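Task card 7
Instruction: Convert sequence to structure tokens.
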Amino acid sequence: MQLNLKNPIIFFDLEATGINVNSDRIVEICYLKVQPNGQEETKTFRVNPGMPIPPESSEIHHIFDADVVDCPTFKEIGKMVAKDIEGCDIAGFNSNRFDIPMLVEEFLRNDIDIDLSKRKFIDVQVIFHKMEQRTLTAAYKFYCGKTLDGAHGAEADTIATYEVLKSQLDLYPDLQNDIHYLSEFSSFNRNVDFAGKIVLNDKDEEVFNFGKYKDKPVDEVLKRDTGYYGWMMQGDFSLNTKNVLTRIRLRALNNK
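Output:
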């Protein structure tokens, strides 16, 4: 089934030096842009992360330091990537928890301006886990009847994710071919920041989603525990999370 699109949609996958959004860096990015008329365009880039790639990461994605030493840095390609993504909805496999927060962090780190706040995010892994509870390789075999050659390579994983979503729409009549619906269906929480440290509760209040103040309204916590803001700003949290926290704090101060 072809996707019913109002906006272009980007399917993308990242390979990185590790899984820490705050300290690790992208080493490969692939994105497949699908237009509402069905036209498709794929781009793949190796990226010099500016740091050694740990052997345990190379064992997974088979990208080594020598493979990226002459590649551009994210700062060099980031504006082009942002331009390609601008105005598009975004889909991936485990993208809401890893790829999107990692990409946003790279944009922020390199002072690249892009607003994703109005975009729809579809996580094909969440749809898969809600329906079948498997991995991308198993999903590709289950839904598409194909063996995923080159798994953990950004391009192979990106194209497989796109094909899996189309096959999911064919297989499950209850899944609506609508980007807004799929975005809502593939979200566990209503994230305020991309890392999911701050979410909206059923009252549309911004609440913490971790730690001793889990489920507590952010503005109330910041009023009651004046040191908590400083602790988070100095802590191992993403730049995006810190920016969101600062915005909430400033809004509360301005409303006094």
